[in-house]
Specification:
Helix content: 10-25%
Largest sheet: 12 strands, antiparallel, barrel
Structural class: mainly beta
Number of helices: 2
Number of strands: 13
Shape: globular
Order of helices and strands: HEEEEEEEEEEEEHE
Radius of gyration: 18 Å
Strand order of the largest sheet: 1-2-3-4-5-6-7-8-10-11-12-13
Strand content: over 45%
């Protein structure tokens, strides 16, 4: 069991790191304007725009439940104020089971490369005939750190009083003008148990993926890759009690789309 003061320090570190990269990213970003399609949204000269991105939309034929997973986002608005919608989850094609995380956020540009976001989040899980839902407030940041790392830290406070932290970091490495390797790391921490969701207090899980995509068009890129999932502590214990495993490696194939 992780003591509360250690968990508090774990929460504090990503917040301090995020504050540092916001403060330090301006000069670097100014040297590399508009090299990514969706970063042109930070050009301060345009009016109302809409952007939709399917970062992850994939099938995992080698996984236990042969899941279809997704990570989608969209925003509409101007250069400073935006309305964001996000959806992240999966559907099992073998054995049933659905889980999803949905967010509706107000975002405000706080630097040329960072949006601060505040809104509501709802998580749902339906597996083996049991359903669970939790809702609450979420606050976070989304933007580019020095070196062109895409970083998305967020804090979720449920109506039941639990606090959890999620962090997603990814990087696009252009092997050629069309072939891109993307490492992507996701991690989660929970202040206390959420048994209905199979989440234990402390560092609950990490997911690391390596995906290689071919940009047939910038907006249309099929990819293949491998993803390693791992749960820890009480989360791993809950997974084993449910007949699952604490970790899994899976091959994936999918599409990255944006417009």
């Amino acid at each position: 069991m992780m003591p509360s003061n250690r968990i508090a320090r774990f929460f504090a570190a990503p917040v301090l790191i995020a504050a540092f990269v916001i403060a330090s990213s301006g000069p670097l970003a100014a040297q590399e304007v508009d090299t990514l399609p969706h970063t042109s949204a930070h050009n301060m000269s345009w009016g109302r725009e809409t952007f939709v991105l399917s970062e992850v939309l994939e099938y995992a034929p080698s996984s236990v439940n042969r899941a279809v997973n997704y990570d989608l986002l969209a925003w509409t608005g101007g250069a400073v104020n935006r309305l964001w919608a996000k959806a992240d989850g999966g559907v099992a094609t073998r054995g049933g089971g659905v889980h999803g995380e949905y967010q509706l956020l107000y975002g405000r540009l706080v630097s040329p490369w960072w949006d601060a976001q505040l809104g509501v989040r709802m998580d749902q899980a339906n597996e083996d005939g049991s359903a669970a839902t939790r809702v609450g407030a979420v606050a976070g940041l989304q933007g580019l750190a020095p070196g062109w790392f895409e970083v998305e830290p967020s804090m979720f406070v449920t109506t039941g009083g639990n606090v959890s932290l999620d962090l997603t970091v990814s990087y696009d490495l252009y092997l050629t003008q069309r072939l891109v390797l993307q490492p992507r790391l996701e991690s989660a921490v929970s202040l206390r148990d959420e048994i209905a969701f199979g989440i234990g207090r402390g560092v609950s899980s990490t997911s690391f993926g390596l995906r290689t995509r071919i940009e047939l068009r910038r907006e249309f890129a099929p990819y293949i890759g491998v993803v390693w999932d791992r749960s820890y502590g009480r989360t791993a214990q809950f997974a084993r009690q449910a007949g699952g495993a604490a970790g899994e490696a899976r091959l994936v194939a999918g599409l990255r789309l944006w417009r």
